[in-house]
Design goal:
159 residues, single chain, five-stranded mixed sheet, 5 helices, binds zinc ion, alpha/beta
């Protein structure tokens, strides 16, 4: 195992904890962790049901907490660990924030989501000139199990 794999797994476990908290509260089970130079900047989770705010996603939650504590430039060059591939809104927020590395557990395509059309992160990056290093499938099975418990994705993946 490379040190990247060890680090990625360690931070993704915290993102999974955030996702579990959101799940237990009745929000979409998504969690995110913002890290720079090996330092935790913020933890975020989806709050869109409990806040009645469709834009209260895990990624924006983590970014807003980090900005409030450390200022607007804190995420430049940072790494975001997220249990789910960011939606177009969050991809835009990550680009504006200057996040340069994205580590994911699960992709939309794996859930066979149909609500985002032809969107995926690579298409967003190509369209907007967003250069981000992508690592994926970190703790994917653990997170997929939580999504299946949640059971509200358009089509559950074939088992
Ligand atoms: Zn989002």
């Amino acid at each position: 195992m490379t040190s990247n794999e060890t680090e990625d797994t360690r931070w993704m476990r915290i993102a999974l904890d955030e996702a579990m908290e959101a799940f237990e509260r009745g929000d979409w089970p998504t969690g995110a962790v913002l890290v720079r130079d090996g330092e935790l900047l913020a933890r975020g989770q989806n709050r869109q049901n409990t806040r009645s705010d469709p834009t209260a996603h895990a990624e924006t939650d983590a970014l807003q907490i980090a900005f409030a504590v450390h200022g607007a430039d804190v995420a430049r060059g940072a790494t975001l660990y997220c249990t789910m591939e960011p939606c177009p809104m969050c991809a835009g927020a990550l680009k504006l924030a200057g996040v340069r590395t994205l580590v994911l557990a699960l992709r939309h395509a794996t859930l066979r989501r149909t609500d985002l059309g032809h969107y995926d992160l690579e298409a967003f990056c190509a369209m907007t000139g967003y250069e981000v290093e992508l690592r994926q499938n970190v703790l994917e099975a653990d997170y997929l199990a939580l999504r299946l418990r949640w059971g509200r994705d358009p089509v559950a993946p074939a088992r």
